[in-house]
Design a protein that fits this description.
alpha/beta, Rossmann fold, Alpha-Beta Plaits, 2 domains, 30% helix, elongated
Length: 220
């Protein structure tokens, strides 16, 4: 499968590390900086193209039309959104956009972006698992003391009130993301289908418990 990464900042490089050399993956890296491209060509098992990811001709050369996935991680929310739009128009199956400002989440969803991630929460290994079709994408990362933080869509909890949720022991939801804004949920807060829960779990086992509740079966 062909996977394209646009932008080789910190997250783009980590993701390239995760995907480089994976059997069955044809990795393509797009980056504007010449020196970064040269270093990437020497380090990764990938086709490295120098240029602007918002250039439709460059995306076509990268193979966006037949790509399984494209990750827009340039470091600019505006550029990532444009790259995502062009990739969807070109026919890329799965498009992941990295955004610092989650207020653009709704706009990206409106143009057909499959997943929007926050670089604060996103882990390259989680994105790798998603683009390879191995698991749902919830952007968990390890934090101090072994705790885990993750974003989840509310899934089967849509329509419920926050106080009605039966969270596993050792799991808390301190923040709810709604239309790009962060809210502290109260017992009476209703959950909408587009809401995103920011979950803190005491350890990986408890994270898996909440993951199984919100993504009970991955049939893909």
């Amino acid at each position: 499968m062909k996977i394209i990464i646009v932008g080789l900042g910190a997250l783009g490089k980590r993701l390239a590390e995760e995907l480089s050399g994976v059997r069955g993956v044809e990795l393509v890296l797009l980056e504007r900086d010449e020196a970064t491209c040269k270093a990437a060509a020497e380090r990764y098992d990938a086709l490295v193209l120098q240029g602007d990811g918002t250039d439709p001709d460059l995306l076509a050369k990268a193979g966006a039309g037949e790509a399984q996935a494209l990750v827009a991680a340039t470091g600019s929310d505006a550029l990532n959104t444009v790259v995502a739009l062009l990739a969807k128009q070109a026919g890329t199956k799965e498009v992941v956009v990295v955004l610092d400002d989650l207020a653009l989440r709704t706009a990206c969803q409106a143009i057909g972006v499959d997943k929007v991630v926050s670089p604060v929460l996103a882990a390259a290994s989680e994105i790798k698992g998603y683009v390879l079709g191995e698991r749902a994408l919830d952007f968990s990362v390890a934090v101090s003391g072994g705790a885990r933080v993750a974003e989840f869509s509310v899934g089967p909890w849509a329509g419920k009130k926050f106080g009605e949720l039966e969270l596993p022991k050792g799991v808390a939801v301190p923040v709810l993301l709604r239309a790009g804004k962060a809210l502290v949920p109260e017992p009476g807060t209703g959950l909408g289908p587009e809401d995103v829960l920011v979950v803190v779990a005491q350890d990986e086992r408890r994270l898996e418990a909440i993951r199984s509740l919100l993504n009970p079966i991955d049939t893909d």
